[in-house]
Amino acid sequence: MLARTILRPRLLFAAIFVGCTGLLGFGLYLQHALDLQPCPMCILQRYAFVAVGIIGLVAAIHNPAGWGRRAYAVLVALAGLAGGGVAARHTWLEHNPPAIADCGPDLEFMVGSFPLGEALPMIFRGSGDCSKVQWTWLNLSIAEWSLVAFIGIVAIAAVTWAIAGKRKA
Predict the structure, then answer these.
(1) Distance of alpha carbon 93 from the chain centroid
(2) 106: domain CATH number?
(3) Across the strands, what pairs with 141?
(4) What is the pLDDT of residues 137-147, one digit of tens each?
């Protein structure tokens, strides 16, 4: 009985929205209260959380049936996979920092000064800022926690996609 209550697509999409909002709020707390400045890859992960959260909110409010639920689940999964890819690369950079770590330009400068085709490789190459672990909890860095969150988001999207075909309304 409890599983039927919890596994409602509308509730799952709302949980995704609330979770992303909480993660973004915590990121702002780390930035403003603890003075931890986000690197370009951290900012991209925030954008992915914003995208996932907005899709989750729209899906929860819209609450479509059948294929509509599956479409929202696919959108959430795609945004989650994109964010997870950035978080995985960020985690890799933390464990394998570049040989010459420099503090590269920030995201705003890169996107404003270079064409997108040049800026994206620069972002994913990482800088000294991206390889530095500034905060940990339970021995996991912020990037690793983001990766865990994105894996959870994609898992919830997969569950939502699976149960959306079984329910008509």
Answers:
(1) 17
(2) 1.20.1550.10
(3) 136
(4) 898 899 999 99
